[in-house]
Amino acid sequence: MTSFAGSSFRGRTFAVGCEIDTKALEAINHRLLSLEKKDARNAMRRGLGKWSKFTKKTLEATGPFGRSTSTEYVRKSVRPNVHLKWNVSTKVKGYSKGLVTWIGVGVKRIDGSYLTPHWYHGWLENGHAIKRATTTEERILLKQRGERGRALNFRTIGRSAPRNWIKKYRSALSALAVRFVEPEVDRAVKEAQRG
């Protein structure tokens, strides 16, 4: 069983991915080969779909909540206060050329918008620098040292530790995927034998 994170899933949209190793799938593959391609693909999709729903419920139950206000002040403007735990999304995808199926569980994303929390999910998972505006005296000193651009306006005063909200569950939840797939494959094999 392998699991992976992050950037391969379109930026930071999907943070938990699950790929079932060949060793774990040998018994399942033997049964899948006895089915028609469409039935095998549907069995895998149903099993992995159930896994993704289970994973979504787990992440929603443990998700950070933050402030309960309806708006927040971010980067000098008022924005809607969206919460990670309300925006967990899942995706199960099969490939047309075979039985390979992948699952992604992550945070909803609307590009160019602050209506979903995808823009700060990476800060929460990976940690981030804590910055403040420089004073006039600091700016003069930084110019004398040869600093240019943004370095003149902001100073890093600390670092926020990563929270690993999704990453800490990744391996445990990925290990459960086979348990969700096997019953669906068994059911498909029984239906094929009856029909």
Which key terms come to mind for this protein?
single chain; 195 residues; alpha+beta; 2 domains; 8 strands; 23% strand; elongated; disordered N terminus
Tell me what the structure shows.
The strands form 3 sheets. The chain has a 4-stranded antiparallel sheet with strand order 1-2-6-5, with helices on one face. It has helices spanning 22-33, 37-62, 118-126, 136-144, 167-175, 177-194; strands spanning 2-4, 14-19, 71-74, 77-80, 88-94, 101-107, 128-133, 154-160. The model is unreliable at 1-12 (pLDDT under 50). With 195 residues, it is an alpha+beta fold. The chain is built from 6 helices and 8 strands; from the N terminus they run E-E-H-H-E-E-E-E-H-E-H-E-H-H. The protein has 2 domains: 2-127 and 163-194, no CATH class; 128-161, no CATH class.
Summary?
α1 (22-33) packs parallel to α6 and α2 packs antiparallel against α6 (177-194).
| Order of secondary-structure elements | EEHHEEEEHEHEHH
Strand content: 15-25%
Largest sheet: 4 strands, antiparallel
SS-based class: alpha+beta
List low-pLDDT spans.
1-12
Please state the CA-atom Rg, rounded to the nearest Å: 23 Å
Shape: elongated
Give, in spatial order, the strands making up the sheet with the most strands: 1-2-6-5
DSSP summary: helix tally: 6
Total domain modules? 2
Helix content: 40-55%
**SS elements, strand count:** 8
**Distance from first to last alpha carbon:** 33 Å
Q: What's the mean pLDDT score?
A: 76
